[in-house]
Every structure is written in C-alpha cells, then in structure tokens.
Amino acid sequence: MKFRNFTALIVTAAFAFIILQAFTIAPAAGEITLNEFGRADINNRTASRYLNKNVNSETEEVIFKETKNLESGSANIVTSVVANYRSFDTLGEITVLFLAAAGIGVVLNLEKSKKKKFAERDSSLILNTGIKLLFPLLLLAGTYIFVYGHLSPGGGFQGGAVIATAFLLKMLSDNKFVIKESNITLVESAAGIFFVGLGLYGLITRGAFLENFMATGTVGQLFSAGIIPLIYIAIAFKVGAELTNIVKNLIEA
Amino acid sequence: MSLISSFLILIMLAAAVAALVFDDLLSSIIAAGLVSLIAAVLFYFLKAPDVAMTEAAIGAGLTTAIFVLALFKTERGKSE
C-alpha cells in the first residue's frame, strides 16, 4: 500500500470517529452538538429568525424612503438573501462558474480545429444593422439591472448575463470585433479580488467574513443597503466576464 | 390569468416533446429554447421576477446560443 493511500485511510477514519462521537456521547450542559437525526430544534437556529420575519420589521412598519438602518437595508428580499445572508454561497457559485469557463477554455484549445471558424463567416445585413443599434442599449439595460439589484428585481447574475448576451450578439454580427483575452482576465480577476477584499475587510473590522460593514441608509434609495450593491457590481462584472469568455471561446475555436 | 397559464403550459409541453422527437438538431435546440422562454413567462406569473430574468437571459438566450455554436462545431446531422 502506498504511503499516500495509508494517510488518506487514517484521515477518513479520524473523521468518521469524530462524527460518530458527536452523535453518541452525551453533551455537557450548554455545549452545542449535532442533534439526533430528525430532532433538530429549529428555535435555536438562525433560520427560524429569517422564517419568522415579515415585511414589517421587528419593531415598526417599513416605509419606503423613511425607514432607516434596517438589518440589510435592501428593498429586494431576494438580493438580501443572495448578497447578504448567503453571500458566502454566492462566492462559491461564481467560483463554480469560473471553473466551468476555465474548463471550456481548456477543452476547446486542446487542438486546433480544421473546420471553418464561426467567426470567419459573414453575417446578414439585418443582424449587422440591428446590433449596431441594440449593443449600447443592451449594455445599458444590463448595467441598470445590476446597479439597481437591491431595489428592483434582478441583480448581478442577471445583469452579467445580459451584458454577456450583448457581447455575444456583437461577436455574431461583426467578425472584426475581437475582445482581448487579457482584458477579460483583468476584469474577472479584479471583480473576484474586490469581492473577497470586501469580505476580508468585514472580517477584520466586524469579525465576520462578508459582514455588512457600511451604513445601510434609507430603504429604497440608490445609496442604501451597505455593501450589497458593491457585492452585486463585483458579481455582475465577474459573471459577465466569465460568460463572455465562454462565448468567445466557442466562437473563435 | 390561469387560462393564459394553462395555454402556455400546453405550448411548453408540446415544445418539450418536439425537442425530443425532432430529427433535425437545430430544430430541437430552438424548441428547447422555447421551453425556457415560456418557463420565464410562467415564473413571472408566479411572482418570481428575479428567476424569470435569469431564465430568460441564461436559459433562453445564452444556452441556446451555446448549443447552436456547439452544433456548428460538430457534424450537423440527424439524431440517432
């Protein structure tokens, strides 16, 4: 047996021992342990607090443009969940998307195809003329969706997807339009570093990763909800760059 | 509202079956895109506009385009 396999076996056994212990040994008073299966006490969990919340805040009714300093400060509850309560999951999600984009890039660049490239064919006049008009409007719509993500439906993922669609249409219509690979890499990395940097700043100043460290402001205004809009802008740039990269690889391969 | 929803669901089912039975792969891709598009409209009816936007942008837009591009790269032909 190789040394590596032996080490893996020992680590697995140790984990199994720890998990078994957590289930079998009676906890001391006040100690937090795993509950017996199916006997979770929901009242002690964070989830119950979110489940019992309603539109009215815990103290008084929420009024647009008047109520200040709510917990997350976001008018869109979905955004509150995605970019505040579960923002660590969101960091994982965009990492998954990054891995998918990287995988597509690797697979498509393994061997040079002898077939005619999609980018080399001519596009129709209607597509050309239409996209000239639509491209800036699509970029504007995508930007609106992610900048207003904490106020209206939409957010970083949707805005990023719309922006990627705009670049897809531009690449389909204009075969001289080429985005430099280094620019996509720069935007993608900068957005990722910005996201993690926000999280680390929260960790240093407030003691929790991705803690909302800025003032939440008045509900319903553009500059409200603390770091949620900043996180959504980072997500939008990252998602947009990744999806654009996937499409670019497919068109140019 | 429910009448429109049922009508849309019927079209969606028909498009889903069509995506399976069409011989031409390009037609299958378009039918699958139609399923996503109607799903987006239904999500909007169910008061989930966030999901509807994602479904319309990614499901109906980007996925269809990626499938078409993949079809262009491979042999254009009939399914088995």
Walk me through what this model shows.
The complex is a heterodimer of chains A (253) and B (80). Chain A has 253 residues and is mainly α. Chain A has two domains: 3-40; 68-252, no CATH class. Chain A has helices at residues 3-24, 46-52, 77-85, 87-108, 125-147, 156-173, 181-206, 228-252. Chain B has one domain. With 80 residues, chain B is mainly alpha-helical. Helix content of chain B is 82%, strand content 0%. At the A-B interface, helix 6 and helix 8 of A face helix 3 of B.
Overall tally of structural domains of chain B: 1
Task: State the helical fraction of chain A.
Answer: 55-70%
End-to-end gap of chain B: 40 Å
Overall shape of chain A: it is: flat
Cα-based radius of gyration of chain B, to the nearest Å: 14 Å
The H/E string of chain B reads HHH
Major sheet of chain A, described briefly? none
In DSSP terms (H or I, runs of 4 or more residues), the helix count of chain A works out at 8
Q: Which band does the percent of strand residues of chain A land in?
A: under 5%
Largest β-sheet summary of chain B:
none
Characterize the quaternary organization of these chains: heterodimer
Give me the count of strands of chain B. Answer: 0
Structural class of chain A: mainly alpha
Number of DSSP strand runs of chain A: 0
